[in-house]
Amino acid sequence: MASSSGSVALAEKLQGLNGLFAIYKKKGPTSADVLNLLKNKLLKEAGIKQHPMKRKKQVLKLGHGGTLDSAASGVLVVGIGKGTKMLSGMLSCSKKYTTVGEFGKATDTFDALGTVTEVQSYDHITKDDLESTLKKFRGNIMQTPPIYSALKQNGQRLSCLVKKGEAVEAKPARPVVVFSLSVQDYNPPCFTLNVECGGGFYVRSLVNDLGKELSSCAHVKELIRTKQGPFTLDEHALQEEKWTIVEIVKAVESGVQLIPSEVACKKLKMDSQDDSEQVKEAT
Predict the structure, then answer these.
(1) How far apart are alpha carbons 62 and 174 in whole angstroms?
(2) What is the DSSP letter of 173?
(3) pLDDT tens per residue across span 30-88
(4) Which among 67, 66, 65 has a CA at the least distance from the CA of 85?
(5) Of 10, 17, 77, 270, which has fewest CB within 10 angstroms of its CB?
(6) Are 30 and 70 in contact (CB under 8 A)?
(7) Do residues 30 and 157 touch, judged by C-beta distance below 8 A?
(8) What is the rounded CA–CA span in Å between residue 52 and residue 101?
(9) Residue 126: other Cβ atoms inside 10 A
(10) Residue 189, preceding bond cis, omega within 30 degrees?
């Protein structure tokens, strides 16, 4: 057990932290669940008790820079202290994903957690067909967000309203940007894509739309976020066993060095190379 002076030192160190770092979110819990788990682990380590009646006066301020679906895993950028004010910039940063889609079945959530709403043949789809169709989804495009999402209607998340059985209006199509999109593997009915996109993009909508374009239907089986802004899964995302004050101090210090590389998270310039010259990203 840590000494009284040691606990005080840890508490001061934790409450003095300001910045951004990245953690690994596993498949299953929501982004909010993961953030709460992280917060509780840190408060416990520092010996800090938060009175349940004083939630508004936070002893530790944490936030995340963009929801990752409960069925997805990967990089979740976290802001701590004054670093939470920097999280809005993370929302517009470029992100990289690796996703496994499945042709032949559509679901109401556009992923494997949903109820199957449609079944179609996929035997006619070749890898060449898939790669050719991807051209329509690169660059500046219009995309309709899924109903099951963190977007809000009258202050409440659409996904929560749908689960309650309340009427939900589909959000209109909106402009998004796809910097790169390639086929990593094709083994019908499954296919694996590497995607680099801007803020507000839904991989689930991409896969659902791909199915329709190819005269079939599709949903996301697996989704991994491998990069958000300058934070990558392999180099920066702390696994749960490293959710300690010492490790997070190091991560925040490293984050200070990373942020200037994407000042204000400026939008990346579109790759001017021809589609045939695009290199597949090993994400």
Answers:
(1) 29
(2) P
(3) 999 999 999 999 999 999 887 665 555 678 999 999 889 889 999 999 999 999 998 98
(4) 65
(5) 270
(6) yes
(7) no
(8) 42
(9) 12
(10) yes
At 192 the three-state DSSP class reads: strand
How far apart (Å, rounded) are the C-alpha atoms in residues 109 and 70? 12
Beta bridge partners of 183: 193
Residue with tokens 């997070």: 248
- Report helix, strand or coil for 29: coil
Q: How many alpha carbons lie under 13 Å from residue 95 in its C-beta half-sphere? A: 27
129 is catalytic: no
Residue whose structure tokens are 């083994």: 187
Give the chain's length: 283
Which residues of the chain, if any, have pLDDT below 70?
1-6, 51-57, 148-171, 260-283
User: In terms of DSSP bridges, do strands 19-25 and 237-238 run parallel, antiparallel, or are they unpaired?
Assistant: parallel
If you write DSSP's letter for every residue of 78-114 in order, what string do you get? EEEGGGGGGHHHHHTS-EEEEEEEEETEEETTSBTTS
Q: What does the alpha-carbon distance between residue 241 and residue 2 come to, in Å, rounded to a whole number?
A: 18
d(CA 80, CA 248): 10
Q: Which amino acid is at 104?
A: G
What is the rounded distance in angstroms from the CA atom of residue 76 to the CA atom of residue 24?
Answer: 6
Among 33, 69, 128, 234, the active-site one is 69
Evaluate whether 223 touches 99 at the Cβ level (below 8 Å). Answer: yes
Judge contact between 101 and 220, C-beta under 8 A: yes
What residues does 218 pair with on adjacent strands? 103
DSSP string, 31-63: HHHHHHHHHHHHHHHHT----GGGTTS-SS-EE
Beta strands 231-232 and 139-143 are unpaired
